[in-house]
Write a sequence for this structure.
């Protein structure tokens, strides 16, 4: 008697509930706007800011700095209905994530790179997932449990989102900034984080600890509320990570600390070594297989060589579903048991997504002698397991990691004062030339806009050295009507609302592969504290641009909210 049992490999899906609870404490979307037009220089109409207004300015400035972090170590604990989730994740500026999360006794290691999220867990986790699956052969479940526990497993983005997107600084900062915009500051106090004095800023149910003095940095967040990032929101943004110190276990809190150049190098070393060592054998849980026996199990008389033939069909369980294209690498293992012994055999094939193919393998069994003429029947059982390889190109991954290390490392070294290493250097003379351009263009505007608006011009360059261009901005998101016939000399207009210098910085945030070489405003840059219609002063925003030298204080200031600065450049 030949008996075949076909089992589809899909039990990983039952792990979604616990993973979702675990990841549900972490996820978020980003949003960022700067508003306000430049007001006339009227000192008498500018009241001193309230404590809440001052705290909002400090928090917004701290979030701007967080947004540009090259890499962070994110570590903390969160209460959820299933217990306490502990998180220890490092995230680079390029969105590479590596670390672990644990909840209800289960620990998941997490690796996110090249828009793919993989997890690794022990047998206990996968056994729990398998036991919750109502159908399936127990033998195959046990084998799958062992196989999954030995490998990184690629998972559907719907299971846990994309930690690399979710935990990047631009995403976290954008979520916190949007909460500040919607709720506003509800209370202000004083506190400490470690030995550092902090301003305690309450926004709804979330409490932020910010350094007491400029330049402002975010030190700690209590009761953060984070939601999953959508991959569609991904842009050219800089990195992420967080670190949490000792905490009251009854509170959810995060302490924020940037990775310095040495820590960032160590992070990339760890990820690259793991990729080289383990990713070649990673499996993919996003593919479901169904196997049916083709022609039974053939054991030619007297040979003991039994051939198992099966038709294997795959369907993609990931979000793209039936519309997906590409190929799947299928690994089939047949567990064959004869009357005297048991053997396994394997076959591997590449097949199109959402298609079927024939697979076969041969085992040698010890079969009894056939003492009669004709056909002899022996009990031979076959159980088949089919798993999809994650098919990670380790060489390509390694090359991309080295490119990411170069970009993030340059930013980390720049922030640490070790030199930015940008290919094109700016100068004070170049900044003065930009100021002359700004003044020339301002002179082409109507009298009121010329006197009360602002024009800023900046030369920008690509970080890889591929090219430069000039950006021009005013206090309005559209090019002034008076400039219809004005030759801008090939300058690109920055279409953002806010002070002109802030619009230049907004352009950079949306074009993160570029940096400021040199630039200037035609009027004095507003400074912290009392600038009207300015959520964060342009001076603070310029100070948060890595590697930027702020020009000398050489211009007369007629109001208390104007600095004596107009020029800036990267040396």
């Amino acid at each position: 008697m030949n008996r075949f049992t076909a089992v589809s490999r899909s039990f990983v899906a039952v792990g979604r509930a616990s993973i979702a609870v675990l990841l549900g404490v972490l996820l978020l979307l980003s949003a960022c706007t700067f508003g306000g037009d430049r007001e006339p220089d009227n000192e008498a109409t500018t009241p001193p800011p309230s404590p809440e207004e001052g705290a909002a300015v400090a928090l917004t400035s701290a979030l701007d700095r967080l947004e540009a972090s090259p890499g962070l170590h994110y570590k903390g604990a969160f209460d959820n209905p299933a217990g306490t989730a502990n998180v220890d994740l490092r995230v680079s500026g390029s969105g590479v994530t590596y670390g672990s999360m644990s909840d209800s006794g289960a620990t998941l290691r997490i690796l996110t790179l090249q828009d793919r999220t993989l997890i690794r867990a022990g047998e206990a986790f996968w056994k729990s997932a398998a036991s919750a699956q109502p159908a399936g052969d127990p033998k195959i479940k046990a084998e799958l449990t062992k196989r999954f526990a030995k490998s990184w497993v690629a998972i559907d983005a719907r299971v846990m989102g994309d930690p690399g997107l979710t935990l990047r600084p631009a995403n976290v900062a954008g979520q916190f900034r949007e909460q500040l915009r919607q709720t506003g500051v509800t209370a202000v106090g004083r506190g400490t984080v470690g030995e550092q004095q902090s301003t305690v800023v309450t926004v709804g149910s979330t409490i932020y600890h910010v350094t007491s003095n400029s330049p402002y940095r975010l030190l700690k967040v209590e009761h953060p509320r984070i939601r999953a990032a959508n991959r569609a929101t991904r842009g050219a943004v800089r990195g992420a990570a967080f670190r949490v110190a000792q905490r009251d276990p009854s509170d959810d809190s995060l302490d924020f600390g940037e990775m310095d150049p040495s820590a960032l190098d160590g992070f990339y070393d760890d990820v690259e070594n793991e990729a080289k060592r383990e990713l070649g054998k990673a499996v993919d849980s996003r593919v479901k297989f169904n196997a049916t026996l083709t022609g039974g199990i053939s054991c030619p008389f007297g040979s003991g060589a039994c051939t198992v033939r099966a038709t294997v069909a795959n369907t993609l369980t990931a979000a793209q579903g039936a519309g997906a294209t590409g190929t799947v690498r299928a690994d089939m293992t047949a567990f064959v048991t004869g009357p005297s012994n048991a053997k396994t055999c394997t076959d591997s094939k590449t097949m199109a997504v959402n298609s079927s193919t024939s697979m076969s393998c041969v085992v040698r069994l010890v079969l009894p002698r056939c003492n009669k003429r004709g056909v002899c029947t022996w009990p031979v059982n076959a159980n088949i397991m089919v798993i999809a390889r994650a098919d990670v190109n380790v060489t390509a991954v390694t090359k991309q990691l080295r490119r990411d290390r170069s970009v993030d490392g340059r930013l980390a070294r720049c922030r640490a004062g070790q030199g930015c290493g940008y290919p094109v250097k700016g100068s004070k003379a170049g900044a003065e030339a930009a100021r002359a351009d700004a003044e020339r263009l301002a002179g082409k505007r109507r009298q009121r806009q010329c006197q009360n608006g602002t024009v800023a011009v900046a030369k920008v360059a690509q970080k890889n050295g591929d090219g430069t261009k000039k950006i021009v901005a005013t206090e309005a998101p559209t090019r002034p009507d008076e400039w219809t016939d004005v030759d801008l000399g090939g300058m690109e207009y920055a279409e953002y609302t806010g002070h002109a210098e802030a619009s230049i910085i907004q352009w950079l945030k949306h074009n993160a592969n570029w940096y400021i070489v040199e630039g200037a405003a035609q009027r004095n840059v507003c400074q912290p504290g009392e600038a009207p219609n300015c959520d964060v002063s342009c001076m603070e925003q310029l100070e948060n641009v890595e590697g930027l030298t702020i020009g000398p204080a050489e211009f007369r200031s007629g109001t208390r909210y104007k600095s004596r600065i107009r020029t800036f450049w990267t040396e």
Q: What stands out?
A: Residues 394-415 form the longest helix (22 residues). The mean pLDDT is 77.
